[in-house]
Fold this sequence. Notes:
Blueprint: H1 2-34, H2 62-75, H3 84-94, H4 101-114, H5 117-128, H6 130-137, H7 143-219, H8 225-249, H9 275-283, E1 289-292, H10 302-322, E2 328-335, E3 339-347, H11 365-375, E4 379-385, E5 388-395
Parallel strand pairs: 1-2
Antiparallel strand pairs: 2-3, 3-5, 4-5
Helix pairs in contact: 1-2, 1-4, 3-4, 3-5, 4-7, 5-7, 6-7, 7-8, 7-11, 9-10, 10-11
Amino acid sequence: MQNRTSGVARQRVMDALVxxxxxxxxxxxxxxxxxxxxxxxxLTSLPTLTxxxxxxxxxxxxxxxxxxxxxxGSALLLWRGRxxxxxxxxxxxxxxxxxxxxxxxxxxxxxxxxxxDRTTWTLAGLALAPLPLxxxxxxxxxxxxLTTAVTGAVLVAASVGWGFFVRGMHRAAEQTRVEAAWxxxxxxxxxREALAREMHDVLAHRLSLLSVHAGALEVNxxxxxxxxxEAAGVIRSSAYQAMEDLQxxxxxxxxxxxxxxxxxxxxxxxxxxxLPLLVExxxxxxxxxxxxxxxxxxxxxxxxxxxxxxxxxxCLTNAHKHAPGQGVRIRxxxxxxxxxxxxxxxxxxxxxxxTGRPLPGSGxxxxxxxxxTALMGGRLTHGSQGxxxxxxxxxxxxx
Length: 399
């Protein structure tokens, strides 16, 4: 609400400035016309009586014709946003008898910038119509009349052309905004699909374990108490984990099934147990990395483990691209019921003495991981803090 109010206030200030500028230009054009300097043809003659003793360079009707008329005509520009066509028509007609061509050109610019092409060309034709009429009405073609007609045509063309340019810029900016929103949505959709596929497979595995152990109890009627207790424990654990996975998969849409039934199965997803191998691969490239990860993190739920692995992997990839040779510190900590916390930092590269061009990046990796983390009920933040780039994430770890 506050932003909307400030926007309205800024628009009002801008309108007032436009009206003042138009009035000043119109008065200047009127004074020039009183001395025979026309920039737009007049279809009526000007008063020629002057003040006594030449006190003012204006005609007798100067104050009303060359001051009040420009002010009142320019005030019509306050309605150019809601009634641009009507205001433009009135000002173009008035410009043929009074010094209102600056206000008319501003209104014509507004039409060109905000209205359809057909409307703009119609009003541009109306603005150009007085030019040949003024030449035909002359007893003989003079250089002054021809110069006035050419100047008027140039001003009308400049007003329409600038309006078209501004409209094109607005359209390009809007298209860029729509494309950016579409790309962001595509990233989110891909992450939703990947997370849904992953959790679907995990959930199917847990339910199959539950079904196998329940079936074993049903078939083995002579099972001992210890065997029954063991199978019941496995069933209880699998059911609890399946309920957790089901809560995460709700609201995440699975993509349509592949038409090719013979498609190769996806490779197994990595876990935190493979994190040291990932770090070691980056160390072999010469990147100094400090990994602080307790060994008891294997108790973290599978989905959180895979997401944590992907976050570390993306951070190392970004460090290779944008901060080569800089050290990376990776810290993982947490406990059941408190959640899993990741803190990954690396110094920003110096801005001077850099050789070569930086590797390009789409910027979609961390955005997708932020969406994936949010879908799991966690959070992820990233950005520069002084001379350090930091990525912080908190993932669920039920008690």
